[in-house]
Amino acid sequence: MRRTPDLSLASYSFHGLLEAGRIDVFHYLTATKYRYRIRHADIWSGFFPTTDEAYVAKVRMALEENDMILANLCVDGAHVWEPDEGARTANAARAADFIRIGEALGAKTIRIDTGGQEAAWSEEAFETIVRQYRTWARRAGEMGYRIGPENHWGATQRPANLLRLAAAVDHPAFGILFHFGNVRDMEVEEGNRLLVPFAMHTHVPADYATTCGPLFQQLMDAGYEGTFSCEHHSGRHEFEQVEWQLGAIRRSLAMLSDGTDGGVQA
């Protein structure tokens, strides 16, 4: 019998508190483990004020002391494609820094976006993106993790683009951070269904918290090996809203266990 994936908690859920100077990565890890009873972290690059090795070592120590696993490292500002060559070079350097960080922290998955604000990539952009992910995926495969983009902006919100990219990269260490419902240019349910087989990690937003059961079941049926990660976005009352959202996700999982669809039944 296949196990039910564990929960994780995206640190982006606390971006409002981070901006207000009321939380840092260490407080996030402690809250995740002891307030929310979750041992799988999902850290956004915004929680790294520096990429200095001494700071990264402190984060690793905090993970180890709390007996936690880094399910995912989400990296912003390192996307592959920019029309300007100088911007691409700067992004590539940031990507290399965070790949090093992810490897040092034992990340199971690393999210680095494709870039491309338009609905589809140009051929030049696509070739550049494919070449880079092939390189990263080979390294990831050797090191025992997976790497890929998230379906959350620009061309990646169109599932057809991501399926084309996955086919071109053609490596088992390449995957997609599947953000539930972030689909354009087709019915959302169909877009979700198309992305399920490529999921390496997930983000479950608040509007799916009470209805995520069917997607959880699809992921489990597809052999998904990552975690179900709660990601909150409002930037307001985050400690309390995350508690609600996690409760709803946990309820959906409980409903699945007795054969219901994980929805809002009484």
Write the layout of secondary structure elements.
Layout: E1 7-10, H1 15-19, H2 25-35, E2 40-44, H3 53-65, E3 69-75, H4 85-105, E4 109-112, H5 123-143, E5 146-148, H6 159-169, E6 176-179, H7 188-195, E7 199-203, H8 213-221, E8 228-230, H9 238-257
Parallel strand pairs: 1-2, 1-8, 2-3, 3-4, 4-5, 6-7
Q: Structural class per helix/strand content?
A: alpha/beta
Q: What's the average pLDDT?
A: 95
Shape: globular
Largest sheet: 6 strands, parallel
Helical segment count: 9
Strand content: 5-15%
Strand arrangement in the largest pleated sheet: 5-4-3-2-1-8
Q: What does this protein look like?
A:
The structure is a single chain. It is built from nine helices and eight strands. The protein is of the alpha/beta class. A six-stranded parallel beta sheet has the order 5-4-3-2-1-8. It has a two-stranded parallel ribbon with strand order 6-7. Helix 5 (123-143) links the parallel strand 4 and strand 5. The longest helix is centred in the middle third of the chain and has 21 residues, at 85-105.
Quick take:
This protein is of the alpha/beta class and 266 residues long.
Structural key phrases:
six-stranded parallel β-sheet, disordered C terminus, alpha/beta, 8 strands, two-stranded parallel ribbon, 266 residues, 9 helices
